[in-house]
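User: Fold this; tokens only.

Assistant: Input:
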Amino acid sequence: MDQDTAAGSTATPEKKKEVKWKRPPSSYGSMKSDSESMDEEEREEEGEGGGEGGGGDGGGGEKPVAVLPDPPAPPVFGVREYSEYTETVHTEATQQTKPPGALVIETGSAELEDLTEDELDEDDELLVTCSPEPPEPLEMEDPMQTDEHGQPGRLHPEQDLPHIFKSMQNILTRLNDEELFKFKMWFHKRQPPNIMQQVLEGDLLDFVDKSIEMDGPDKALSNTIYTLESMEKKEEAAELQNQCQKALYRFYLKSILFRKHQVIHEGVIQAGKQSLLNNVYVEPQLSTCGFGGVDPSHEFLAQPLTPLQVPSEDTFVGVNNLFRLQKDDGSPVRTVVTTGLPGVGMSVSVAKFCLDWAEHRANRDLHYVIKLSFRSLWFLRRRNNPPDNMSAFDVIEYYHSEMKNLKLLEEENTQFLIIMDSFDCYQAPLDWEAPEINDNTTKAHLDVLIVNILRGNVFRGARLWILGRRAAVSQIPSQLIDVFSELQGFSDEMKDEYLTKRVSNAELAENIVRHYKRVPTLCILVRHPFFCWIVATMFGRSFCYEDYGRFPPRLTPFLIHFMIVQTNRRLKFYYDQMDNELKWSDREKQLLTKMGKMALRMLERNTSVFFEENVKEFDLELKEVVVWSGLCTELCPTVTPGKRTFCFSHFTIQEFMAALYVFLMFYLESKNILESGSSFIFRNNKTAAGLVQCALTLTLNSAPGRYDMFLRFLCGLLSPACHYNLLRGFLYRHNTPKVAGLDEAERQLEQAVRNAPSGRMQSLKECLREMRQKDD
């Protein structure tokens, strides 16, 4: 022993004792495995023995210092980087940093006493990264909080990764070696053999680290609880579930929202042709100053018949920033109401909001996002008839059975959002003088419960987002609303961006964009996202045919498709018909016919707005017209102070509906209501040529632009491609014959084009093309 010691005191560097490389701690925590502790104890015993031997003849020699390789460079924030150790992964959520000026001492590479006083300044702060009892973790600034609105926000500490990791680690340390081996086998039994080998060879920290890396924190936590229960470790599973209950609730809600909104459902769902929402979504303009959302632009009219206000750009706000807004007193908003024209994209905007929250893209500081659709509440009310009394917690548990301990929602500083969309689908009238409810467990009628939710008497800590068509949400008392917002649709750049995203073929998308811009009215209508989708769908199919696109597209088929889809949505959402059971009855035919008659009377009166008394004049119900039809909306009260004012979603739709009424009277009842400029004088001349001649006379004898679009739609409806191919089976039977005598009607239009003044010639050419063209 003395010889060895003496030799060691004068040893050359080649004979220095090798020191085993020691794995640094896992990036998620500071726990050490049993094998590491044993290695340390052995090294300490060897060090003590060397010190005793060194006290002899070799005591005056220099103490040998082990030279270790340089440790790997720390990973850069925001990038996942694997260390050179098999089982350890460094992530942005757990990588420790040092404060400015601090000296970091790696205890695995050097002893503290080996450092000289020159190397340690008085102001240096020692930060030991590999000590048996490490210091408290440093509070790091969340790198994702960079937006001026605080997006995407900071997670609740009990929902964040470090808490989940530590909780899993603490529970699993209670398992003995045999139980831990069994747990690992059960936990990763579906993993590939190479992964299983790494898991079995690593220590507990490596196991938790690897589990979270492969499955994510939510799935890893859920699988840990499930595996513990399978091993009859009920107590440990219950404790882990209790420690991470807030995280589990969030994971549960995230999974629901992700599954529901990951894929966008547009039109009739076709197998194999589904689109991911994140791939096609373009956020429409959202204004906090809504005037009705009706675009005043028109192809022929420089000024709208009724003055329409348009919000300025400084009122626009991002959908994800709605709940970053503040009241006048600086406090955060609680209740936000969002409305817009039918088909403007409210449902898609809600889906994107939910998906961004579920994927931690935005609003991470919202602990929970709970969706309670008014359509679902209406189903619940109708299912229980008369309805059973329910509490606010009962309603949530009915739709989210996994959420048992809802007292979490009542904890102080709990931030959660309740999204209540489709307000127009709740068809029962609400009594805003209903009795008050002061807690979440008091049972009451569903109507009373909804009123108290809007008042803020229940779910006091919640933020509330209500969406619906304007004519429906206008009944909510203004004192209950903090922010009233309105979707405005697409800008010019957004139209092209949507079509480019929606159509995967770049060349086809370019052709579609170029093609729709050939028709000025279509350029105006595609500001509406629903029309944009119709353009993508129709042109995407049409460009599959050879030589399509030589002529500009016709306008009438677009308006027919718009009316049909909106009526089908009415049957689905308000009359509970399934997609494969949509069938138009006489009710739909009468509704559209009467609305067309009202539109024609409005054209004759040279107005674009109507009131409740006008609806009753044509034996129509107000809700059927302005809410359920999908063709009309309510304007801001400032248009006609003190009186509810309504209009069609665009003046072009009003002109189409007027032309549809004239055509249906001619086609189904052989009546030419345009004869002699009166709607109540009928003659024997009931041919298509006679109808076109009356419409030409009406148009040319009126101011330019007043009836031009009406004439164009009427000529388009007379085309067999429209009335026979598109409308047949909806407004009349399949065996209804085609309109006869169109050749003579075309000759009349040709004659009118030749004789028309220069200012009217182009409009009449478009009418002739609507009747004659067949490439749609």
